[in-house]
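dumping the sequnces here before i forget
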Amino acid sequence: MENMVNIKINGMPLSVPAGSTILEAARYAGIDIPTLCFLKDVNQIGACRMCVVEVKGARSLVASCVYPVNEGMEVFTNTPKVQKSRKLTLEMLLSVHDRHCLSCKRSGTCELQALCQELGVEQDDRFDGDVPDSILDESCSHLIRDNSKCILCRRCVAACEQQHVGVIGPNGRGFDTHIACAFERPLSETTCVNCGQCIVACPTGALQEKDQCQEVMDAINDPDKIVIVQTAPSIRATLGECFGMPIGTNVEGKMVAALRRLGFDKVFDTDFGADMTIMEEATEFIHRVQNNGPLPIITSCSPGWVKFCEHYYPELLPNVSTCKSPQQMTGALIKTWYAEKEGIDPKKIVSVSIMPCTAKKFEVGRDDQDAAGVPDVDIALTTRELARLIKAAQLNFARLPDEKFDDAMGVSTGAAAIFGATGGVMEAALRTAAEVLEGKPLEKLEFNEVRGTEGFKEAAYKVAGMDVKVAVVSGLNNANALLEKVRSGEADYQFIEVMCCPGGCVNGGGQPIQPATVRSFTDLKALRAKALYDQDEAMPLRKSHENPIVKKCYEEFLGEPGSHKAHEILHTSYVARKRF
Amino acid sequence: MQKRITNLPFRGTPEQEEKLRAIIAEHKGQQGAVMPVLQKAQEVYGYLPMEVQAMVAEGLGVSLEEVFGVSTFYSQFSLTPKGQYNISICLGTACYVKGAAALMDKVTEILGIQPEECTEDGKFSLTACRCVGACGLAPVLTVNEDVYGRLTPDEVPGILAKYQ
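..and the predicted 3d for all of it:
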């Protein structure tokens, strides 16, 4: 039995676990205390004063997000004093805020806007402060920072620190305080890995992905271009959230229907590329095991992780799989195999991807990602941008029929479906590696030890009589801790999966933004991942090497997994980057 | 006002670096080590350029931005080097009403630098200070330890010429 304490909230007696904060305790009583800077497990600094409450006997209002309950405590969450204080806090924030809300991309998902509405702020210019100039940092390929919309809550700073990158922080003091990089350098000159976790942590419109919707529509409207789209495994599990559907709703069919109606010439599935990745990566793994290394092999699907490794662990780059990511493999095969078969000049193809990830916008521009002499993928959009395209086209998403991907690259397996969750790539690779090495069907396809949303998982398996030690990490702080051990020789894994974002792609920086009230008290990662594991379980084909299109691709075009041609088209290289 | 960041090249010596490394080693692992290390680093270098802050960040295992954030929060830290001769112009109340702003304009005009900056040759740097306790001499300008009072802008070129 947990240690409980008795308190009263607004006169209501309540028994809550000891160690709870007032904010948590109030939720047991059905009261949502408003917050702004608070993001559970990420940013708990009690700075914004939005969540203040009265505590009997306390000299002043207290910040409920960090104030622990104790026996006999009496809390009041909705007194005139509390209401007045919260409203004043909002009015002060608005006094230095760029209030062009109607045209702000976060209008509708802005937490500041929502609070002003909920708490009844009647005048957005009660105080006239010095709104910072809107000087945009557009130096990176993936995001735009606009400090005129920043409320200095530091959620982005905490998210960045949690990724072990920490390239943004508060500079200056008092009114000069602003979030920026060291020595006021542009973000592109730092070790930013483009993960976008800062964007999904931002309560306002201060941080945005670099929107490329117009580029895509221009391509679609150009009669000389053939525009082909692919969607990452996790998009189908999250896109519905942008249209008010419950978290974890799989909207694959409607997503495909929407893409067709937007005017894409072909709608392909990155899951096919994920199956190709498994073929190449499992082959690479087996080859390294048989040829003494370099081991551990580390997955390369996550471009945020790859850039992190290039900055922080360049000496481990030989360990990183040379496989391109599923996005790039699909793109490369569209412009080589598919173009050749269909007799299309690859230069005429505009290859678009829908990704859970802002780092994909960086990945498309990397060197050695151009199998046909032109970029494998031209434009990477986030889930949020796709939702924007669908809304702009006035498609009624919920009423769209369920449609299927185009056959040429639209068939995939359950192994690919789970790529979107941490542990998914590992499980998919193990399914194929084990079966190929043992030469007989696996009895059990589930590798439960590597499932789940924990940041670090490890397991040992027997594959064809051989002991294979694997580790799965998500979130770069976890990755960093593991890599320290690999570097020092303390860890002896053979296979490591690293996903940049905590929980994997389902929680990527390009995914629908959920407010802190949802993120703090819902297991977003698990709910979204469940949609993918359910999909895997329901699929007739659950192992990448059983994918008929994959087989055809090797028969018709590439030869064998790991062949010279496969290496030319599906593999890439990395560069060591500076830390400072 | 945001702190000025120097764009002059870093001229650290191996001896300075050795001292800094020793300071970092002394504080490594301590909680809140950034602050004392930056204070001592500034004693060694006179200011905290990127090269120094990067060494501090790497040495203490914290991010460069964290170090920079501290260095811009506290007014005691400078991001620009001091020249061989540091010109300090008092902008306290008495000096200000007696025309210190005009002195400042004259100095910036002659040297081509703003307050908190240093000339490219490392000869002069300029700071604005608050009251040197010589209000009777207002407006006051100091060059290192030398004090000049009851000045008019016309006298500035002559004073600077002494140090050329």
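Chain A touches chain B through 18 residues (CB under 8 Å).
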